[in-house]
Design a protein that fits this description.
single chain; four-stranded mixed beta sheet; 6 strands; binds zinc ion
């Protein structure tokens, strides 16, 4: 679509009043909303309205898509890009939602011939940035900060979407600072994390972060937003690198002691 036409359409959407019922959903399911200042809250509301107008939502496995589902997902996704201008995950077309964690059939060849088949449990994934798949209870737990403290499936998958913007899924998002310096420093943090996991040290991130640079970036981003003080205490350098990447400082707004 021509960008001037798109921008005009987005402006018109932002001028519509934000439904009171959507505010209710945000208050109930997106705990971060209470920590934003008035300007940021307004910015997030505008973002949600555009996002919901542009993306299609699809229920899978009997899931019913309601405004609560749409607004809860959009509220968490929009939080991530508060530091960006006009970032609406343009490549993303649809959001697929399951009523719970879902099973994906997997198969792998066996050494002696034949195949091993199994069902893998998933709570979310993204398909080349065009669709995102989410487990609804995990979405709610993340929004209410109840998914193991620092996890959020929406933030995780949206971190991958931002990572993909420059065409590669390599844990390096589009940056305003020097890309080479940033990724070298990020790699050091990852190596420190992997060493700590191998030596059974207490770490702020879920072990899944050790899967690769892309997962390290996505899991660290979850903790950056969901439990910023814990991340900063555990690895201040990593916190600073993510602050540069996301162009915001959640530590300044999220209370240091959270009831979960
Ligand atoms: Zn991932």
């Amino acid at each position: 679509m021509l960008s001037w036409l798109r921008n005009r359409r987005r402006r018109a959407i932002r001028e519509q009043p934000f439904p009171g019922a959507w505010d209710e959903v945000l208050r109930r399911n997106v705990r971060h909303i209470g920590w934003l200042d008035e300007h940021e809250r307004e910015q997030l509301r505008d973002w949600i309205a555009v996002f919901l107008a542009e993306k299609s939502f699809e229920g899978c496995g009997g899931m019913e898509i309601t405004d609560e589902v749409r607004v809860t997902i959009a509220g968490q996704a929009g939080l991530l890009v508060l530091g960006f201008t006009e970032e609406y995950f343009d490549r993303l077309r649809s959001v697929l939602v399951y009523p719970g964690d879902y099973l994906v059939p997997r198969r792998a060849p066996l050494d002696g011939g034949g195949e091993l088949e199994w069902q893998e449990v998933r709570l979310g994934e993204t398909w080349s940035g065009g669709s995102v798949v989410l487990s609804w209870p995990r979405v709610v737990d993340g929004g209410r900060l109840r998914d193991g403290g620092s996890r959020s499936v929406v933030i995780h998958e949206c971190a991958h979407l931002i990572d993909m913007l420059d065409g590669e899924v390599d844990g390096v998002p589009p940056l305003e600072c020097d890309r080479r310096e940033w990724s070298a420093a990020m790699q050091e943090c990852r190596e420190r994390f992997e060493w700590a996991v191998e030596h059974d040290r207490v770490v702020a991130l879920d072990d899944y972060a050790a899967e690769g640079p892309d997962e390290f970036f996505a899991v660290a981003t979850e903790c950056f937003f969901q439990d910023p003080h814990r991340l900063a205490r555990s690895d201040g350098r990593l916190y600073d690198l993510l602050r540069m990447a996301w162009r915001q400082d959640p530590k300044a707004r999220v209370p240091s002691r959270l009831s979960r």
